[in-house]
Amino acid sequence: MKYRAGYKYQLADAIEFDDININPTALIKTKYITLTTDGVLRVKAGYAWDGPSGPTYDSKNSMRASLAHDALYQLMRMEKLEPGCRTDADVLLDRILEEDGMWSARRWYWLKGVEWFAGGAIKPENVKTVYEAP
């Protein structure tokens, strides 16, 4: 058996994010994530992510944003998106948090945390390890 650790959530239904302001020159498609050249991010049911990271709590108004952000950071770790897309992914995080009703002061702390501490999350060496059992 092979598995990866570190996930808290699994998407039950597919979701689409339109006009995310990241437009790759070619279609990006993985098992669970698709990013079109016109900036549409699609995440398939079954995708697993760790939810909001850092010293925060998971709330309904943070789940969509954390999903989109994690999917984009994963594409950067996989070297399917340039590291320069990090800023756009962070701006999208803030936009979705605002759309979903997160208080502005909490959003500010989130963005500062991402700015200060999330840089390593886009590095290819931080791809989740595959473990085997037994």
List keywords for this structure.
134 residues, two-stranded antiparallel ribbon, 8 strands, 14% strand
List the helices and strands and how they pair.
Blueprint (H helix, E strand, L loop, with lengths): L1 E2 L5 E2 L4 E3 L10 E2 L3 E3 L5 E3 L4 E2 L10 H18 L8 H14 L4 H14 L13 E2 L2
Antiparallel strand pairs: 1-8, 2-7, 3-6, 4-5, 5-6
Helix pairs in contact: 1-2, 2-3
**Estimated share of beta-strand residues:** 5-15%
**Measured distance between first and last alpha carbons:** 7 Å
Measured as a percent range, the helix fraction is 25-40%
Radius of gyration: 14 Å
Which spans of ≥5 residues are poorly predicted at pLDDT below 50? none
Q: What is the SS-derived class? A: alpha+beta
Q: How many DSSP H or I helices?
A: 3
Strand order of the largest sheet: 3-6-5-4
Instruction: Summarize model confidence as the mean pLDDT.
Output: 94
Could you characterize what this model shows?
The strands form three sheets. This protein has a four-stranded antiparallel beta sheet with strand order 3-6-5-4, with helices on one face. It has a two-stranded antiparallel sheet with strand order 1-8. Strands 2-7 form a two-stranded antiparallel ribbon. It has one domain (2-132). It contains three helices and eight strands. Helices cover 34% and strands 14% of the residues. The chain is an alpha+beta fold. The termini are close together. It has helices at residues 60-77, 86-99, 104-117, and strands at 2-3, 9-10, 15-17, 28-29, 33-35, 41-43, 48-49, 131-132. The model has no long low-confidence stretch (mean pLDDT 94). Strand 5 (33-35) and strand 6 (41-43) form a beta hairpin.
